[in-house]
Design goal:
Helices cover 49% and strands 2% of the residues. The chain is an all-alpha fold. The N terminus is likely disordered. The protein is built from eleven helices and two strands. The chain starts with 20 loop residues before the first helix and ends in an 18-residue tail after the last helix. The longest helix is centred in the C-terminal third of the chain and has 28 residues.
Length: 346
């Protein structure tokens, strides 16, 4: 007090505040005392947060963990998408009259909507988009990095002999779609499981530094589906169930592949909601770029009444929340209240 100088010394049990990053860089230039004469001073211990990977590198290397990072399959498909747009543009110029429209558009008399949402995606369209993403992973792969556990010749899925050129011939999109559709139909898996499957695939490629190639795509996709069905779906799925679908594979082989898959993922099977939503909307963009439109149906009276009921329910909840906030704090400026207009769907 007064002219008396005072300072606050933290107690021994309290942890001191860490210096800022600039202060830490200045401390690195100061040599630490090693004679042990002063017990209170010592070398600066770097905090664990300072040793983590910067956000820029993390976003580039782990798109399946960060919602702001762009998906790998969408970037791999951009080359083919640009070629398709250029070809369509040249065909449009060469033809005097445009052909029939492949996509339906809403008008004053008819409104088209699809039944696919982020919480309830359309099963058939989602599987088509996911298999198309796998197709672009194989077609535009960086190299042929793989592991023996995923090699189809070393671990065949059927008794039929593997073709000689199995490692050089890229599979068509229809073949990949048939393989995945068979598994989803037999195991009764949902569309959300297909999106999580793609997340696990890209997480495997990032963590293990692998590539999906013609020699391993079936077993890599099978391992991702097996893990996604156990983590995401409420229905219990056993490895023996897949052995009944793929008649010639053994339970021991499925167990070993699942164990390797989990180890390569570093047992990180968590899929945040933001990452799931990013993959869903990127799949929709891929479908739009590839003319794989989600099924559209005209808005009928029954669906319009359902949408109107949902809208009224949300409006009632909003009114309840706003009235509760007005009760807590009311001023002269808010006495006039708020005017709302009801939306009518006819």
């Amino acid at each position: 007090m007064g002219n008396t100088l005072s300072c606050c010394v933290p107690a021994e049990e309290e942890s001191p505040k860490l210096p800022t990053r600039q202060a830490a860089e200045r401390l690195e230039d100061v040599p630490s005392s090693t004679d042990g004469s002063d017990d209170t001073t010592g070398p600066y211990l770097q905090h664990i947060s300072d040793r983590e990977v910067p956000d820029e590198l993390a976003l580039e290397s782990n798109p399946s963990d960060h919602a702001r990072a762009s998906t790998i399959f969408l970037s791999k498909s951009q080359t083919d998408v640009r070629d398709k747009r250029k070809s369509n543009h040249m065909n449009h110029i060469s033809h005097a009259s445009p052909g029939p429209l492949s996509k339906k558009y809403s008008s004053c008399s008819t409104i088209f909507i699809d039944d696919s949402t982020v919480s309830q995606p359309n099963l058939k369209s989602t599987i088509k988009c996911v298999t198309l993403a796998v197709y672009y992973h194989i077609k535009n792969r960086d190299s042929g990095r793989s592991l023996d556990i995923f090699d189809e010749k070393l671990h065949p899925l059927s008794r039929e002999p593997v073709p000689v050129d199995y490692a050089r011939t890229d599979p068509e999109h229809k073949l990949i779609y048939r393989f995945v559709r068979t598994l989803f139909s037999a195991a009764q898996l949902t569309a959300e499981c297909a999106i999580v499957t793609l997340v696990y695939l890209e997480r495997l490629l990032t963590y293990a530094e692998l590539d999906i190639c013609p020699a391993n795509w079936k077993r890599v996709v099978l391992g991702a589906i097996l893990l996604a069905s156990k983590v995401w779906d409420d229905q219990a799925v056993w490895n023996v169930d897949y052995c009944q679908i793929l008649k010639d594979i053994t339970v021991e082989d499925m167990n070993e592949m699942e164990r390797h898959f989990l180890e390569l993922l570093q047992f990180n099977i968590n899929v945040p909601a933001s990452v799931y939503a990013k993959y869903y909307f990127d799949l929709r963009q891929l479908a739009d770029d590839s003319n794989l439109n989600f099924p559209l149906e005209p808005l009928d009276n029954q669906r319009a009444q359902k949408l109107e009921a949902i809208s009224r329910l949300c409006e009632d909840r909003h009114k309840a929340v706003s009235q509760a906030s007005l009760r807590r704090s009311l001023s002269v400026d808010n006495l006039a209240g708020r005017r709302r207009s009801n939306a009518v769907i006819s």
